[in-house]
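quick q for whoever's on today - can somebody do inverse folding on this one?? i tried earlier but teh output was garbage lol. tokens:
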């Protein structure tokens, strides 16, 4: 059951995250029907649709292994048995099988079990949520590659914006530009206009902090504001929407906005 989150957005439970991994994978698989695997992927420059499928299925299998092992420290290797298909006709089934392996790992794992995680939440549920948005964003990449219409549930999209923002301060090991997001109290506000979701980012000399906003706290002045429908915000923070897109309004300090989007690439 969903409950009210501090930001006013709906909190999505780990059980809902688990179900959404399966649903998003099924939508990804549907986008592959009849598609040429050599198609370029606009959201991942230099990748083909085959690269995208292999990456997503590999990540699902690796995260599933981490969950089964209940890792308590950073893994030393990303090696995992991939069981790749024998030919190009088997990739859709291979991706489906990866989601099935994930479902098995979810069923065996208490989402509240302590685990190492690179982000803010050191529990098994971190990896379930991370797998969901890895799959969801790449599902939209696949749909764009084949020219299919992309739809994202607004509540799920708002949860994805939250997941991105709260984990971003911890992402410097694979997104080194994040280390340049420092300042002297400058603030950016990210706000969903079609569902609840409001976050304030404050730059500090040693990094930045992200705080959900609600009520009167959300009405205070900020140096820059980024607001739009939750799906558009999600695609923007992941670099799948151009900064100048008309669907997302950006106001305030232009230099601060440019600095944020230059260095927050995930």
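ok took a stab at it. sequence:
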């Amino acid at each position: 059951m969903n409950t009210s989150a501090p930001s006013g957005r709906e909190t999505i439970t780990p059980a809902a995250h688990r179900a959404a991994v399966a649903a998003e994978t099924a939508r990804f698989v549907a986008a592959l029907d009849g598609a040429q695997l050599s198609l370029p992927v606009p959201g991942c420059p230099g990748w083909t649709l085959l690269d995208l499928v292999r990456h997503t299925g590999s990540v699902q299998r690796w995260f599933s292994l981490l969950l089964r092992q209940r890792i308590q420290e950073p893994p030393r290797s990303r090696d995992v048995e991939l069981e790749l298909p024998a030919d190009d006709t088997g990739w859709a089934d291979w991706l489906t099988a990866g989601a099935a392996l994930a479902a098995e790992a979810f069923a065996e794992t208490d989402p509240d079990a302590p685990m190492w995680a690179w982000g803010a939440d050191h529990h098994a549920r971190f990896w379930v949520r991370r797998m969901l948005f890895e799959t969801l964003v790449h599902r939209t990449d696949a749909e764009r590659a084949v020219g299919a219409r992309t739809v994202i549930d607004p509540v799920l999209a708002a949860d994805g914006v939250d997941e991105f923002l709260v984990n971003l301060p911890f992402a410097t090991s694979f997104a080194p530009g994040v280390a340049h997001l420092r300042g002297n109290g400058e603030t950016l506000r990210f706000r969903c206009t079609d569902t609840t979701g409001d976050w304030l980012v404050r730059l500090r000399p040693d990094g930045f902090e992200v705080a959900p906003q609600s009520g009167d706290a959300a009405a205070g002045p900020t140096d820059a504001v980024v607001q739009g429908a939750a799906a558009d915000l999600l695609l923007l923070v992941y670099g799948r929407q151009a900064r100048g897109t008309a669907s997302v309004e950006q106001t305030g300090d232009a230099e601060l906005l440019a600095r944020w989007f230059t260095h927050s690439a995930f």
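fwiw The beta strands are 3-4, 10-11, 187-192, 198-204, 207-212, 224-228, 248-252. also Confidence is low (pLDDT under 50) at residues 1-8. so keep that in mind when u check it
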